Amino acid sequence: MTEASSLPSSHPLLDGRTAQSAVVLAYQGVRPQTRPIWMMRQAGRSLPEYRALREGTAMLDSCLRPDMAAEITLQPVRRHHVDAAIYFSDIVIPLKLAGVDVDIVAGVGPVMGAPVRSLSDVLALPDLDPDSLQPITEAIGIIIGELGTTPLIGFAGAPFTLASYLVEGRPSREYLHTKALMRDDPSTWHALLAWTATITGEFLRAQAIAGASALQLFDSWAGALTLDEYLEFAAPHSRAVMDAVSDLPVARVHFGTRTEHLLVAMRDVGATVMGVDQLTTLERANELLGGTTPLQGNIDPELLTADWPELQAHVRAVLKSGLAAPAHVVNLGHGVPPGTDPDVLTRMVELVHEEG
Fold first, then answer.
1. pLDDT for res 2
2. What pLDDT is recorded for position 276?
3. Is 316 designated active site?
4. Which InterPro entries match (predicted)?
5. 31, 45, 316, 347: which one is catalytic?
6. Fewer CB within 10 A of the terminal residue: the chain, N end or C end?
7. Among 54, 65, 258, 347, which one carries the catalytic annotation?
8. Domain interval for residue 180
9. How many folded domains does the chain comprise?
10. What is the structure's pLDDT at 5?
């Protein structure tokens, strides 16, 4: 690995732009004067300006057009005044960049041209050409040029979740093919996850070097695993991703849904911050993690459509709960639902800034 100084001197963490930002400080375990907030899926379908910009452009194409990806990333920062931008991409973009046949099908989600279920399928997967990352680094250059002191968070999907998409061929609720491959052909399973870990590490590292001030690894489907399954079949490969960026001075946030039973194991693969979904209180998460790990979360996305007094009370409860942790970045327990009123999001950000 290269040294941390391999970040360019113009990087926002090194030239002073984001090093003292509220999100970066909180990720380091320092409580800033104002509690910071950003939201997963804050850039996207809830914003009319996003829908207008995306009209006529396929989802994956919008992620790979640097000007469009940059504009979409910046839209919620301008509108809501959140404390961080999250890079606009999709969990399957590294697969697409590597040459895997994948598309986003409306009403379904990511769909593979053909599932990957045998060793020959795995061995046929292509390496990620570093040149293919150029649209990503170009977009991040545009973004950080506009953000000023607001940090950008890079993101990627964890190996287990990416591999599950590859094996199932499309989103699944039961993960039948995934668990069958884990159980019946573990050597092929581990070969597949080693491949996904490699491309994910390269994808995240490129984002950090290009200007991201923190990174978040999403293991969206990990909650389907028992602790023993996670430790055997997923954790070693998530650790490989974290190792690929561990020499860089950026926070490493790890997040999954329905993962209370996995929080410690997910932290121990190399995360420095743990995201918490709405099913686990921040007090409980802090207790499980030994009181030493900064937390992120965990406003219930379903309450974004509730009456304001109910949402207001819930946000205040989350702020109080977050006091248990060494530091706390306010977020949702999952992503912004597409039908959310953006004015509610803006009002919620103002509430956090006023009371946090």
1. 38
2. 98
3. no
4. UROD/MetE-like_sf (IPR038071), Uroporphyrinogen_deCO2ase_HemE (IPR006361), Uroporphyrinogen_deCOase (IPR000257)
5. 45
6. N
7. 54
8. 4-355
9. 1
10. 52
